[in-house]
């Protein structure tokens, strides 16, 4: 599984060298070279470690502007500060994610399969129609996941 790239506003000290400029309120997106400087009025977002995504969420709302570039290098999602995300936990003896990053899911769509200790298979369904922007594996004795979904309006 390939991992998307995450760009966050204002993270100059933790960045990995790659930068993105957002101009005209998200209508123009420019990827900069590592040594290229930007002199304009747009927002500069810096690449950070993808697993740190949940550090920029407080009470289901983003605390900074975020841009996610998915592994196909063509699909991107720009989320503004204050965007509300739905957090859906998937907990069980064994958890097998069904959807991947960037997938559009419909209401009632299966996100993950759960296997109980008895061997029964259960499913975690999404309560809304939206896009899966982030999946996090929670470190524990058993693999648990949290899916972050951007609801469609």
TrEMBL record:
**Annotated organism of origin:** Methanotorris igneus (strain DSM 5666 / JCM 11834 / Kol 5)
Pfam families, sorted: DUF2118
Q: What's this protein's name? A: DUF2118 domain-containing protein
Q: Which InterPro entries match?
A: DUF2118
């Amino acid at each position: 599984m390939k991992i998307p790239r995450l760009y966050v506003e204002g993270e100059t000290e933790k960045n990995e060298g790659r930068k993105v400029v957002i101009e005209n309120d998200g209508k123009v997106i420019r990827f900069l070279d590592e040594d290229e400087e930007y002199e304009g009025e747009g927002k500069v977002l810096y690449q950070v470690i993808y697993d740190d995504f949940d550090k920029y969420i407080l009470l289901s709302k983003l605390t900074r502007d975020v841009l996610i570039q998915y592994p196909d290098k063509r699909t991107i999602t720009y989320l503004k500060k204050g965007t509300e995300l739905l957090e859906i936990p998937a907990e069980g003896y064994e958890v097998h994610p069904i959807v991947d990053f960037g997938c559009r899911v419909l209401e009632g769509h299966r996100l993950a399969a759960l296997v109980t200790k008895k061997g029964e298979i259960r499913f975690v369904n999404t309560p809304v129609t939206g896009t899966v922007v982030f999946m996090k594996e929670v470190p524990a004795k058993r693999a648990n996941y949290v899916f972050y979904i951007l609801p469609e309006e």
